[in-house]
Amino acid sequence: MKKSVILGALTVAGMAAGTAGAATLDDVKARGVLNCGVTTGVPGFAEPDADGVWQGFDVAVCRAVAAAVLNDPTAVEFVPTTGKTRFTALAAGEIDMLARNTTWTFSRDVDLKFEFTGVNYYDGQGFMVPADLGVASAADLDGATVCIQTGTTTELNLADFFRANGISYEPVPIETGSEAVQLFLAGSCDVYTTDRSALAAQRANFPTPDDYVVLPEVVSKEPLGPLVRHGDHEWGDVVRWTLNALITAEELGVTSANIEELSGGTNNPEINRLLGSEGTLGEMLGLDAEWAKRAIMAGGNYGEVFDGNIGEATNIGLARGLNAQWTDGGLLYSPPFR
Amino acid sequence: MSDNTNNDVSYVRTEFLEPSEPPMAVGGPVKWIKDNLFSSWFNSILTVIALYFIIRIAVGVYPWFANSVWGTDGLAACREILDGATGACFSILQERWNQMLFGFYPSEEYWRPIVGLILLAVAAAPVLFWTLPRQLLYFTGIYPFLAYWLVYGGSIWFPILLLVALCLSYLAYARFVKSSFVGAIAVFIIAFSVLMLNPLGGLLSLVSFVATQLSQLLGGGDVTVDLIIGDRRLSDLMPLFGYLQGWLDGSFLGLALPEVTTRDVGGFMLNMILGTICVSLSIPLGIVLALGRQSNLPVIKGFCVIFIEFIRGVPLITLLFVANVMLAYFFPAESNPDLILRVIIMITMFSAAYIAEVIRGGLAALPRGQYEAGDSLGLDYPQSMRLIILPQALKISIPGIVNVAVGLFKDTTLVSVISMFDLVGIIRGPILGSTQWTGIYWEVFGFAALLFFVVCYGISQYSQWLERQLATDHR
């Protein structure tokens, strides 16, 4: 709609656009750079190396989206955010998407007006204690002092867990994970609680890892995933299906090694649709036919990204567990590319 | 020994004996120790206790330094080499020193901030040491523009045209200041904003914003209001110097350094940038606020009092959160000023309020006769302030100003909580959060403490020297 009113020599033009920020995809294309919110540093998930190049499991999602949309996995401006600044940065439009170990919860989705575009890591909150504390179960932790990161869902889960079990605790609130570990190692708190992936990563770097045990209880569901602003469904679809493309690629056996060969055309129609040699899926997203191929080539399929950043061969040493494909007994289940 | 062979006189000594050392008990280190460390039983106990702690610390820390490991590529490798012994893993400094000093600044461009730092010493010298030739002050005036260009890159014509615009606006101000001071300030602002900013565009987008809010209230969409003459939109008519810069960049005079985004400027360099800019901006602002607070005009006085008391009543960290989070809501995403600019404004306002109070203390310490002396000489307000009051008041205020400056410099590390990668931010984020180095702590924070100590101790020594130089009273 465009209205023009002639006022003498001057013209007043009023244009009606859609709602604010509705065209993130166009903005990103025009800018040529994807602004992606990440953590300030979590081992394996997002960490800049000695040259300042961001690496990690969450970072790989940003790179895949940039590859799909902009044809360049390095066209990403990584915006480091803390637990407190991440949501305002996204809501205010400073970043286009947030890939930062963020738990998908009801209130964040509905009340804070964000749209989670899937889950890239299924986590759960656990407890770590020194082995000589002699505690076998989290239910024995009555009266314990607990080191915990502020502004996270773990803080709330902790309160819920102790209330549900009718036992008391004394929280020691801490800003970052590395500080919490220092305090825990120095004996300032009996228990350190956070997501089990982070517990494993940090325990692997303790001077004496065997002196500490991770208790068997998983006290919460922590589906971690990328998110975008509410209301911009085209952009949400791009991020959602980029993540799904990585997951589907692993399921279908498409890897960064064989993708060139497979993209020439195979006798599996779903691979062909995924890689763009058949169908018009890319066009429906507002991208070209090879978007998913580029996303997969950015860092490999989901399994390759996992193994390269946080898998058992790395320092972090996480097992696939819940994050295996549904065919292997995990929870990864991408809707079909059709 | 004398070689005098004349033996017919009784023995006469022709040379002085070397004075002998005093006995051990009344001179030398023994006496010093006795006088200073064991002069009474109470002091002796304190000495013994202090010695105990010093030795304990030295014994504890020594192996940490002696066993230190260099050249590994991760904490795990360090632990392997140490094999359970206590020892520092200084490999981290070796691998990440560049990030701690420069953040993510591109490594092939490191010469630029280094040159900037060296030139900072040249530019600051005539301000700090007034025996140096006054002509150097011209360089001090140019330095901020030069340093901006060196650190952030881009076209050289932007800082040059900014300087030219400021000079032209000042000339316009000087033309009108005789008739009306306020009018001249207005002329200055108008001239500068027409040359370098886009006042019309700002006005139009404000109108558009209001219209959009109204139309959304009525259920409509966004409205953009613009004035169009021919095929030109008035909203992008200005800044006038934009055309000049475009022409200069396109011509053979175009000279540009690779641009560095502000997010990549980090590490100790960011602390230095924030500290230098904010201190040098907040001193003049603080003087204006202090004078304003003493003004007889109720509006000016009221504004200054409210500003100072509000800023002093709010923690710096709150202001930084406002800069990072709240301002992002007020401005549309694309016209939002850069984060570092918002942070500089906030820190400057914060320290200006403190410096204003320090200077007010200096003003209050002057006897009333000094003000009256200025009036009796027929000096007007600016003259009496500039020639009589401020030189004395500022001299009294120096220790307080330096105190604020040192505190401010250390406070710049607070920007790490709004996820800027200054020295502390880069340690807490990328370094402690990396797979190889997570769990390292003392080495990196010790390095940070050393850097800050060197700078703060230097500032403090300078201020003591300055006070001795300015001690014109008769003691």
* Structure summary, number of beta strands of chain B: 4
Overall structural class of chain A, as computed from helix and strand content, comes to: alpha/beta
Name the CATH superfamily classification of the largest domain in chain A: Periplasmic binding protein-like II
CATH class annotation of the domain at 262-475 in chain B: Mainly Alpha
Query: How many separate domains make up the residues of chain A?
Result: 2
The total count of strands of chain A amounts to 16
Compact description:
By secondary structure, chain A is an alpha/beta fold. In chain A, 34% of the residues lie in helices and 20% in strands. With 475 residues, chain B is an all-alpha fold.
Give an account of the 3D structure:
The complex is a heterodimer of chains A (338) and B (475). Chain A has 13 helices and 16 strands. With 338 residues, chain A is of the alpha/beta class. A 5-stranded mixed sheet of chain A has the order 12-11-13-10-14, sandwiched between helices. In chain A, 49% of the residues are buried. Among the domains of chain B are: 24-66; 262-475, MetI-like fold. Chain B contains 18 helices and 4 strands. Chain B has helices at residues 28-36, 41-66, 75-82, 91-102, 111-128, 136-152, 157-176, 181-196, 199-217, 240-250, 267-293, 298-312, 316-330, 339-365, 368-376, 381-411, 423-431, 442-469, and strands at 154-155, 227-229, 232-233, 256-257. Chain B has a two-stranded antiparallel ribbon. A two-stranded antiparallel ribbon of chain B has the order 2-3. In chain B, a hairpin with a 2-residue loop joins strand 2 and strand 3. The radius of gyration of chain B is 31 Å and the shape is globular.
